[in-house]
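REQUEST FORM: STRUCTURE PREDICTION
Request ID: SP-0412
Submitted by: Lab K.M.
Chain count: 1
Length (residues): 144
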Amino acid sequence: MKKYILMLSIVLGTMFLTHAQKIPTPVELATKKIESFTKKIKVNTTQRNVIYNYMLDISKTQVDLAKKQQAGLFNPEDLGKFYKLQNESNENIRNILKGDQQTDFDKFIEEELRGGQKKKKKGKHGKEEDEEVVTGISGLKLPS
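STATUS: Completed
RESULT:
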């Protein structure tokens, strides 16, 4: 009886751990990226489909890297290849875009590298105020 309870707890524990560490699929990642992209930059359907394909390629590589890292097979050269692919894809996307779209794309990339947009918080009187996002070493210092 103890063996059955032990085996059941091991199986349930393993299922719980694998569910907790679920890596999103490349399609989920690419869909999320293209949705945030189209919110910031107005593109036609042809541009959207081509850009989605580039984002899907990047997402596939990103998921492969995450799986290698979890398996302990991570190689720093793989990260360099990923960054190279990402830069090439960004250049290809920039070439697809026209005029103002390119400047909006540059702002979009900067925002992604910063970690998202500034967060809004409500003030005492219900007005929205911009919360200052501090990055770098100055963000780690305690206020005095």
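NOTES: Residues 21-102 form one domain.
Reviewed by: T.R.
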